[in-house]
Model the fold of this input.
Amino acid sequence: MSRTILDCRRLLCPMPVIRVQDRIAELQAGDELQAICTDPGVMQDIPAWCRINGHEILEQRLEDDEYILLIRVQDTEG
Amino acid sequence: MQRKAVALISGGLDSLLAVRVMQEQGIYVEGINFFTGFCVEGHTHAIRKKDQKKPKRNNALWCAEQLGIKLHIIDIVEEYKDVVFNPRYGYGANLNPCLDCKIFMVKKAREWMEAHDFDFIITGEVVGQRPKSQRKDTMPVVQKDSGIEDRLLRPLCARNLPPTLPEREGWVDRDKLYDFSGRSRKPQMALAKAFGFADYAQPAGGCCFLTDEQYSIKLQDLWQARGNKQYEMDDIMLLKVGRHIRPEPGYKLIISREEGEGKFLQGYRKQYPSLKTTSHAGPLCLIDGDFAEEQIEQAARIVARYSQGKNAPEVELEFRDTEGNTRLLTVPPLPPHELKKEWVV
Done:
């Protein structure tokens, strides 16, 4: 299991989702991805993307004007 | 054998319905949403303070969740440039290359379909709904030029069109498809109601900034100033933000209109020289292009005009270059009658 940090600061919808989606495609089930964003829309969009693609949101919080989401990658094959 | 379709999901009502019609027939569907850089999705809501109360959801994701399907959002910003620069079938009323855009997206979806072993593509298109890309005579052009031929099914208007492969092969029942046509949205709204969709993105307004007259004027101005049709992602994002004022052909000012935009523009201060009022509350301004020393003062006077010191004899501003070096300027704000109409892009 690994934890990757993904810098999505200054990116606007839907780029943070695209970055998360593309990075998760490279990770293994059980890995964690922490996305750091500045677009408030990510608080809706990244969890929605995770729900429809079967990944788990472990944490989402606002810290110093940055939106931080922690995702656990799930095995979605089959 | 369950057949698999890939759906082009815009986030609007039509694609939502098209997918549900297919699901009703037992087809497995996954969605694709292409990001061109010009999509009217969330961006300005996330920037402007006045828009903070608007829902910040991405409608394509929201639709996918309502439908219970996977959604793949694909960045086509770079490849899409060629569609914007050289549309084979020309532009619409503004810089919208709608027919070429549709062909390009269907072609990309076809490549995805083939790579992922899906059977056909569906779209929410309706004959006669759009003046360029959704006419009875242009819809076959999309099929031919994209290479998808008869593996493209438009469930909402299929009965107005020749039967496609999925219909002929019996994967879907043509009798359970629809014959919508024209610009009225009433049939779609009735179908949405029948399916129990009470909440969906409002259909009016389009989903692409290139259909917007003001935005197209700004893009054309950018191309003219640079002497060629080019843009980077940051250029097209910045066209959505602030007042754009071009006092000289060589440079342009991007002046924030409110706090949210100012905050957004701050993120670009390493890429663009900037001006910010210090003696009075006021906007942040990025300077895009080549300018001479004396033009900094001209720019400062224009920015001061949009500050709370607009009626003061002098306003102090900080000029900052892309290296972070700063210096102070003291200028009289430009009187309103000296701000030429033709400067405002």
